[in-house]
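During the second year of the project, the team shifted from modelling isolated chains to modelling whole assemblies. The rationale, set out in the original proposal, was that interfaces cannot be judged from single-chain predictions alone. As a representative example for this report, we include one of the complexes processed in the last quarter. Its constituent sequences, exactly as entered into the pipeline, are reproduced here:
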Amino acid sequence: MDANALKRCRELAKTIRRHCLQMVYKGKSGHIGSMLSTADIYPVLYTRILNVSPERMKDPARDRFLLSKGHGGAALLACLAELGYFPKEWLDQYYCDNGKLSGHISHHVPGVEFSSGSLGHGLPVACGMAMAAKQSGGTQRIFCMSSDGDLNEGSTWEAIMLAGQHHWDNLTMLVDYNRLQALGSSKDIIDLEPLCPKLEMFGWRAMEADGHDPQAIEAALSTLPLEAGRPSAVIFRTVKGKGVSFMENDYKWHYGGLTAELLEQALREVEAAQ
Amino acid sequence: MRKAFNQELLQIAEKDPRVFMILADIGYGEIEPFANRFPDRFINCGVAEQEMTGVACGVAMEGNIAITYSIANFPTIRCLEQVRNDVCYHNANVKIVIIGGGVSYGELGVSHHSTEDIAIMRALPNMVVLVPCDCKETRAATRAMMAYEGPVYFRCGYKNEPDIHEEDIDFRIGGSIQVREGHDATVFFAGPVGIHAKEAVDALVAEGIRCRLVSLHSIKPIDKEAIVRAARETGGIVVLEEHNICGGVGGAVAEVLMDEGCGNVPFRRLALPDLYVTKVGSQGWLQEQYGLGKAGVMAAVKSMLGRS
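Output from the structure prediction step:
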């Protein structure tokens, strides 16, 4: 990634964070911590990795991205709006009466492949898309973003077993692995560690990467599959609430709401960041 | 009926390369021809119905027609949220087929009784609900289902069901099929339990009671016109189904009657009571136990008409 691309990814991440904070404040909604932890991944994914564009939303050859942790969907929506999938003004109509955008992502929004919000739904559907692509000979790749909570769901593990069994190497699972979930530390609720070896034992090739470093994100996703004949998993080490000091690594910001003062402070910190 | 469905599906899949079969390790003795003929359009997901339903949704979203197929409640209630959020909300072209509607698997116990399925499936937006009654209807319903674009719940019987229809049938989603004409009352039925309605209606002729007999195979959308005509042209309505009395076929018919201003028509529902069927026995025996046999239908018609 050259300096210009790096700058663009960082700027887009900053813009996504700003949008998320304003959307959550205006909508008096929650899940800001889960949005901020993914904000550095989407710019790399959508500008450097995925074969997608707003002009080709129905192109059968496009890559598919499914967000299984739909509660953090505002970050994806902000990214899609910035890249021209729908008007940016829609972001002002998030989580409100007669709104354009719901708190959990919906496929009725241009660029969103799949609606989610209840965890454990994304990966099985991604498996179906991977199977269909293998059957038709399609070259599209299927990506699904999971999370700590999403990996608590049995249905996610059903799909992990199936994908390994069938060697769907056109499938990549990204994990926003911030180690926190709604009521506390994942370590104290369902400790997924060691996650990479678990996935490998199920027939996947898995690696970890820094989920806040654009270059590390690109490096992890630029040579997929990680191994031919196996589905890939990239576990992004992330920080819940990343970019806002009082939110970082505090599970209370899974649901927490923003006051005008906190919003101002948060926006200042995001603005000041590199 | 199970065999009729699988044979018909195989024929359709020969002509339509979009047809996929997505299983959860159920179907022994029936699905092998499809699996052998179309290995790249067949997958056994293992005993994992949530994932099966998600996979079917993903396959369908890529322009295919995905069948999930299992017995009793496994592809419906076991994975209800996948059916709702993935299949129905996305209006994905997934066909959910169960073998063994009602108490077909009577002796196996409550886990294998599909007795709330119609109420639950018909409450889902975008879902079509079909309940064929014999092999002829099963074949026609399979063809109609596969030609329809969108989610369908198909409640199939099990095996050795007697034929109810004697003539060729005109099966349309949202329609119904009249089996006997009469004006004293109408007996609507859904599914193979309808054989008892037919026996009852035929036996009532000897007592001077001529009933209209109608297979209400399509629960959603439902044939409002046939229901309203029955209310206006005949002396009362009996609905027979092998399902909990809450929210099933009788409930669906009652909704139409009230909505269409026919609320004063004499009306009886014959269904399983609102309980788990803990009695152990065969389908036929259980039907008799809960008044869903020939005698139960005859008694309901006569009591409704004040002829008992």
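The longest strand of chain A covers residues 171-177. The two ends of chain A are 17 Å apart (CA to CA).
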